[in-house]
């Protein structure tokens, strides 16, 4: 493709279709002031659906709840500052019809009412409660296993210490910490907190003293190389935390396996690009011979080359393996089992090769679709679907907002709805484009510089599907979808801070 671009700090030179779209927008006029909460947020179908499902609300009630939540947040910010040391916390009531602000000074109650909130006079300020919690934090190393945690409970004007299996150990911990016991409530709990980790292609995993790389996340776990382990072998993750167990493995003859992970690990549609980010997996359409292809592995990271041949038989010292794909990409021990991608399409898992990433070499991979078929697994993709490379018809899922449209080849569209959105805080902007089969659609994220729209991130592979992730500061943003080649309908899912 002949896509010309400059650095993110400059105005990007875009294809003709995008240039025409940008010309229609004023280059020097700043967008009008955004509302305190983007209007699209209240109308987000994904958010409204989730609120109706989990909070038992109707669509109208969900919209009203969002408006009240936003108002409460703004009121709290204002009163926290104006009340100073008298501020003791704030909360919405269970039905969200009343916003309560606690104060230690009765004379401040009128100020709270004037702001539209309900005052409650309490004994301890937010500062004092935070100080109690800080003291407990400093003693955290001495907390018994039966204490899963503690937090400031503004509603009761205390610090809650959770206790599992009786209160005695928790009370002893509180006493030993030296805090004012009258400010603490010990509350019975059944919580057993655990850290949750992501299953991501290209990351290391360990089998005893050996190390391999994850291929792709599938339902229930991940696929990898067969020579990495046998059925029944236990694995630990990149962080040496218990991860899972090999369910099946085939080597030689084939070189594939699948590992079921425990509840500490969540399969994700990502591959580690070893540059501080992820490549999103959209499907598993087989790349043609001569196509560009990239590999992720825990020894040498991210390397690229081209597909040279299908269905190669490779004679290893342990026996021959047939049906492998040959590439001119380098790899080294420990990269075994790692991910191969062409664009966003999963291709396979690393089997073996010759040479290294200093002098170059040849590397072979086991095609992923054969693995999925052999074990009845489905690939975890950006659309939540399985393998086969066919994007889900409803577009990208798991994003806060969703928009759609249709483009003819060479044209472009600004989203959302020909406009922009305002992000009031720093954080990650994520976009997922699901384009028409056989087309080449691109996705650009642009930010208003004060005088023009500047492209800060882009997805410009040869695929119809693209994903973009960008960590940015507050400001005005918009998405641009470009039909580089081909025509048809598209769906765009995006989330912002």
Automatic annotation (TrEMBL):
It comes from the Bacteria. InterPro entries: Alpha-lytic_protease_prodomain, Pept_S1_alpha_lytic, Pept_S1A_streptogrisin, Peptidase_S1_PA, Peptidase_S1_PA_chymotrypsin, Streptogrisin_prodomain. GO terms for biological process: proteolysis. Residues 124-181 form the Peptidase S1A alpha-lytic prodomain domain. Residues 1-29 form the signal peptide. Keywords: Disulfide bond, Hydrolase, Protease, Serine protease, Signal, Zymogen. GO terms for molecular function: serine-type endopeptidase activity. The keyword Protease applies. Gene3D superfamilies: 2.60.120.380, 3.30.300.50, Trypsin-like serine proteases. SUPFAM superfamilies: Alpha-lytic protease prodomain, Trypsin-like serine proteases. GO terms for cellular component: extracellular region. Belongs to the peptidase S1 family. This is Peptidase S1A alpha-lytic prodomain domain-containing protein.
